[in-house]
Amino acid sequence: TRRSIGYFECYYIHFTTSDSSLRSVLSSFPKVFRIIDSEKIEILFRDMAQYPRTNAGYSMFCKAKILEILSCLQDNLSISAQKRQYERYVRNIFDARRYMDLNFSRTIRLTDVAAKAYLSPGFFHKVFKELVNMTPSEYLLSVRLSHAEDLLINSGESIESIALSCGFSGQSYFSYVFRIKNNETPGHFRKR
After folding, report:
1. For residues 165 and 104, what is the distance between their CA atoms, to the nearest angstrom?
2. Which of 6, 43, 125, 170 shows the smallest number of beta carbons within 10 Å?
3. Gap between the Cα atoms of 67 and 70, Å rounded
4. Rounded to whole angstroms, how far apart are CA atoms 124 and 134?
5. Which tens digits make up the pLDDT trace of 20-54?
6. How far is CA 180 from CA 51, 107, 149, 168, 186, in A?
7. Cα–Cα distance, 30 to 39 (Å, whole number)
């Protein structure tokens, strides 16, 4: 993490290889660029860091993860070229996501979130979908479900109480969307 006038995170990756085909791929990347889907790359790095070095397939596992990272970076470059027209709205969308992250337990309307991003609702919806790869309502639902999963694991609250505290209109709707995402009911998830 680095600090400047505005907060940002920066990842440094250094590759050394004797493989000429890999070198040509690496040389095609710009020295510095913005990552659109950093969560996927973070997961790949975390997988490599957590894989036991004593396992027989450690070297092959790491090579596979590095190739996945390069694939993600390549995809990122092609996606970012398409999305460059919306790049100036990244901060607006960050503010909107932060608002949803902090207020997920309340009723949130598209007009409220668009106002936090200083954009019209229709344009906000379009830009959000382009930059985040999901609609604002899908993002809000994923935030609510994530918090609900955490409460199911770490609290003794009833499922109805968890549903209401995470911004769902009731237990039945919560159970319905939870089952769609996790292929099991909240009760089975908690037991498991």
Report:
1. 9
2. 6
3. 5
4. 12
5. 777 777 777 777 766 766 778 888 888 888 888 88
6. 30, 21, 14, 15, 11
7. 20
Residues 6+ apart with CB under 8 A from 170: 160, 163, 164
96 contacts: CB under 8 Å, gap ≥ 6: 113, 114, 116, 117, 124, 128, 136
- Length of the chain, please? 192
- Listed in sequence order, the residues at least 6 apart from 142 whose beta carbon sits closer than 8 Å to its beta carbon are 134
Instruction: Name the phi and psi angles at 122, rounded to 5.
Output: -65, -45
Cβ atoms of 152 and 162 within 8 Å: the answer is: yes
Q: Which residue has the tokens 């996790």?
A: 182
With residue 139 as reference, give the H or E element that holds it: helix 136-154
State the DSSP H helix or E strand holding residue 3, giving kind and residue range, or none if neither: strand 2-3
Distances in whole angstroms, Cα of residue 66 to Cα of each of 26, 54, 134, 157: 12, 19, 26, 42
**Residues 130-154 pLDDT 10s:** 888 889 999 999 999 999 998 998 8
Beta carbons of 111 and 90 less than 8 angstroms apart: no
Amino acid at 181: K
